[in-house]
Write a structure and sequence with these properties.
Blueprint: H1 2-17, E1 19-21, H2 30-38, E2 42-45, H3 53-66, E3 71-74, H4 95-101, H5 104-120, E4 125-126, H6 151-167, E5 171-177, H7 198-214, E6 219-222, H8 240-250, E7 256-258, H9 265-268, H10 273-283, E8 288-290, H11 297-313, H12 318-341, H13 355-363, E9 365-368, E10 377-382, H14 398-404, E11 409-414, H15 419-426, E12 431-435, H16 442-454, E13 459-462, E14 474-477, H17 483-494
Parallel strand pairs: 1-8, 2-3, 3-4, 4-5, 5-6, 6-7, 10-11, 10-12, 12-13, 13-14
Antiparallel strand pairs: 9-14
């Protein structure tokens, strides 16, 4: 009887260990602390959980009081995708800006500084970097989150980012395996499909992941994408051929495999999160990320019970679940060792608080010339934000330019706005037109074209992928829309 009870307890703890759930609030709810005490080994943080660095440090301390090796994960890519600075915009440019500079030493230093700030707050697993090669310029979800469309460039910067982040004691989670760059569908909404042959995948998509593995990435995140050349029926997250056959056996990866968010419609809308989670663990995943939209105890218990039932019914080998749980605990143990090795209270080596803005300035690509503007009108053409970025993080140059140029006025124009709308609002002021991926939005491209024809002195700032031809008296490509990218552009416009 004792052995049976012990076995059931071990199975339940293993099922809890492989979950990475989110939660609501800026303090740890009682249910989360209870589940951590019962075996939950990881939690995921999102913008809703973060108000300040001090509050975040207190939150992670709460969790560590329950379990000192708990993995605290976050989706902090820097650039457009920030949770640490979700309400103000990131202090770091994102991957495309770093790829545009193409200085791997800079990328390593930026990642290390970002990691240092996370570690100071008690975060020890970052769902970053994105190793996707943005080979499809119309990609609606990757874009500036990629280092670029060049495979070798993406590979060397992925490796540098992994090295920098982990030098700060924060585990990197390289994503989205086997590569989300050649998609035209956002997997938050539906299941993307990549129809390329195996030779292309090997030569393009897999190269940055190989570089990340060689750099020692502690985790890899799977993509909810269908790649028929590898598996014609199941998306990568649920595919034994992709996770076990390709990632484990062919590429020799031994670290943690984490799924992308299982509540995303590519999985939840097709398989359901319970069945999807069982299939993912069976396929070779070790950790189930389910924090973005489902953040309560009921979800955790549903997934725990689904995994336990699958083992008892023979649908999931107990050894596979135990192996997954062991990999989670091994990473948790690494983070505890790293933290113990850091001298308490001592400033970390390599602190570089201004490196984000310095990198953003270096990433600017400028076409044309214009004198410093006076009292401009900043018109931001705002597309609908993709879910990975979110709509609560401010972006643009209006606030930054207003801080530098007295009398700056601004307005935001949603999808469907025209040049006439902008001109009516601007009056006689010089227009600073801010766009984001103008090449992907016909309404935006049309407004830009008409505005520049009417007002040739218009200054254009492209804060997405700079695919369209530069237009305007002055055209600035920032390669991202983080706060420091906006600041760097504003400094140039203001002539400071």
């Amino acid at each position: 009887m004792t052995l049976l009870a012990h076995g059931a307890d071990t199975l339940t703890r293993d099922a809890l260990a492989v979950l990475q759930p989110g939660f609501e609030g800026t303090t740890a709810p009682a249910w989360l602390l209870r589940q951590v005490g019962e075996g939950l080994t990881a939690v995921g943080l999102f913008g809703r959980n973060i108000a300040s660095p001090e509050q975040l440090a207190a939150l992670t301390a709460q969790l560590r009081a329950e379990r000192d090796d708990v993995l605290v994960a976050i989706d902090e890519e820097g650039g457009d995708v920030t949770r640490l600075e979700v309400r103000g915009g990131s202090s770091f440019p994102g991957n495309l800006a770093l790829g545009a500079v193409d200085d791997t030493g800079l990328t390593r230093d930026v990642a290390r500084e970002l990691g240092r700030r996370l570690a100071e707050c008690g975060v020890n697993l970052n769902w970053a970097p994105s190793a996707d090669v943005n080979s499809n310029p119309d990609n609606p979800v990757i874009g500036v989150r990629s280092f670029g469309a060049d495979t070798r460039l993406a590979a060397r910067h992925t490796a540098a980012y992994v090295e920098g982040l982990q030098a700060a004691g924060v585990a990197a989670c390289t994503k989205h395996f086997p590569g989300h760059g050649d998609t035209n569908v956002d997997s938050h909404h539906a299941l993307p499909r990549i129809d390329v042959d195996l030779d292309t995948l090997v030569a393009r998509e897999l190269v940055p992941f190989k570089a990340a593995i060689e750099a020692g990435t502690k985790a890899v995140m799977s993509a909810h994408i269908l790649v028929p050349a590898l598996d014609p029926t199941r998306p990568a997250t649920l595919s034994p051929q992709i996770l076990t056959g390709l990632l484990r056996k062919e590429l020799g990866y031994e670290g943690l495999i984490v799924t992308d968010g299982m509540e995303m419609n590519a999985i939840a809308g097709t398989y359901g999160i319970e069945r999807g989670s069982v299939l993912a663990i069976a396929a070779g995943a070790d950790a189930i990320c389910v924090g973005g939209g489902l953040a309560d105890e009921a979800t955790v218990l549903r997934l725990r019970d689904a995994l336990v039932a699958a083992v008892r019914e023979g649908a999931l080998p107990a050894e596979r679940l135990a192996d997954a749980a062991a990999r989670v605990r091994a990473l948790a143990s690494w983070t505890r060792q790293v933290r113990a090795a850091a001298a308490p209270g001592a400033p970390q080596e390599g602190s570089a608080p201004g490196i984000g803005l310095a990198a953003a300035r270096r990433a600017l690509v400028v076409t044309g010339t214009a004198g410093p503007v006076t009292a401009p009108y900043v018109a931001t053409l705002a597309p609908v934000a993709n879910i990975a970025v979110g709509d609560e993080t401010p972006w643009g140059v209006a606030a930054e330019l207003a801080a530098l140029v007295p009398g700056t006025v601004s307005g935001v124009f949603p999808e469907g706005a025209t040049a006439a709308d902008v001109l009516a609002a601007a009056g006689e002021r010089t227009v600073v037109l801010v766009v984001r991926d103008a090449h992907r939005h016909p309404w935006m491209a049309a407004a830009l074209e008409a505005l520049v024809e009417t007002r040739p002195q218009t200054v254009v700032v492209e804060m997405g992928v700079p695919r369209a031809e530069p237009r305007g008296a002055l055209h600035i490509a920032t390669h991202g829309a983080s706060r420091v990218c906006g600041r760097a552009a504003a400094e140039l416009i203001a002539g400071v």
